[in-house]
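Data card: per-record layout.
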Amino acid sequence: MPKISLRAFAVPSLHHQTNKQTNKQTNKQTNIPNKFSKKSPKTNNMKKIALFATILSFYATASFAQVSTTASQTANLVLSNAIDMTFTANNTATGPLVSMPFTTTADYASGVVSSAQALKVRSNKTFNIQVKSSATNFSYTGTTVPSPVMPVATVLDVKVSANGTGGAIAGTFANYTDITSTNQNLITGGTYGGNQTFSVMYQATPGWSYPAGTYAVDVVYTATQQ
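The structure for this 226-residue chain is written out next.
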């Protein structure tokens, strides 16, 4: 009977081969360049340049930025009520002399009328204008003794011949009205402004009973703010 001899052979382990193959594959995979895991030198340089440009821009902006500061103060306008009135002929509060000569019998019969006398009011508020004589009687300069007494109210009249005040002519002063020694409203409700003008005219009717001479009286205009 033939002898059967059993010899044991060392069979390479499948597991061992598999590990070797796996390692080889891993090594191969590891040696494959990965464009996503490793950036190229060109990309890195561009990023460095961009970062440097950003930093340089920041410092340039900081260096040339304007530096400013402020200061302030309050301006107070302290306004007071103000008004004045002048004659436009000489721009003063004392008007020129108004002369009304009586040289003919017609003058005595009909009376004498003056030229228009213009006045201007400047006011920051509405106003009224009043008129009066400075005395009850005219003063007399002449040769007659004793001096004649001529009442103002019965001889001298005034009227508003033009009104640019924005107000209303008071009473009967749109026509010739007696001037008395007591204030009378001439214009009411004049509006505020720097060129509120009006004009007046005088009429004198002394009649026949007074001797020659010069008869004078001041006519006073008063502008009062409302």
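Known properties of this structure: Residues 83-225 form a domain with the Immunoglobulin-like fold (CATH 2.60.40). The CA atoms of residues 99 and 105 lie 18 Å apart.

See the next section for split statistics.
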